[in-house]
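Z., the sequence and structure:
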Amino acid sequence: MTKLKIDIVSDVVCPWCTIGYKRIEKAIEELGIQDQVEIEWQPFELNPQMPAEGQNINEHLNEKYGSTDAQQNESKQNMIAVGKELDFTFDYFDEMRMVNTFDAHILIEYARDFGKQTELKMRLTTAFFSERKDVSKRDILKQALLDVGLDTEEGMAKLDDKEARAEVTKHQEYWKSLGINSVPTFVFDRKSAATGAQPVETFKKILGDLIAKQN
């Protein structure tokens, strides 16, 4: 049986990417098609220029989107509520920093060969949003590899591997060349796509139609 391939273009520190994934996961479960789909994660950096020390999240959102503190607060409360519905904890705090995610993407790429991409991606996302951890730091990345049962020595070596770094850049450029400039974007069999954290029902409709067509 040919599986429906779902490429999810996303970033580790993108709250809507987490929500979007949790919703499509729910849609897949409710349709009972777990064995008919295959998910692959694709890299996208929301802030490729982010320096190593990161930036305070409020400052960052203000600079990037021009949002006021009140707007940010409202948006965070909304995120927390939506997360709760999907059993995911968004723990925003005053000293929270937006960080560089390039190394995280290298490890997610590495995890593909072991069928552990989703596990590692969600481990890193949880570390960032729920556990107040800086996912640009090597000790945090190493722990994430350990948590999902991947070889830490081999995985961490990838971070200094020129080829591994070039590979992530190449993948990012490929998806951008297709016109993907906002995340999450869900690409189905590389033929059609849905952008944003669609409601569970919308995902069910999309997936149901695609699976029916395939069969």
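The first helix runs from residue 15 to 31. The radius of gyration is 17 Å.

Let me know what you think.
H.
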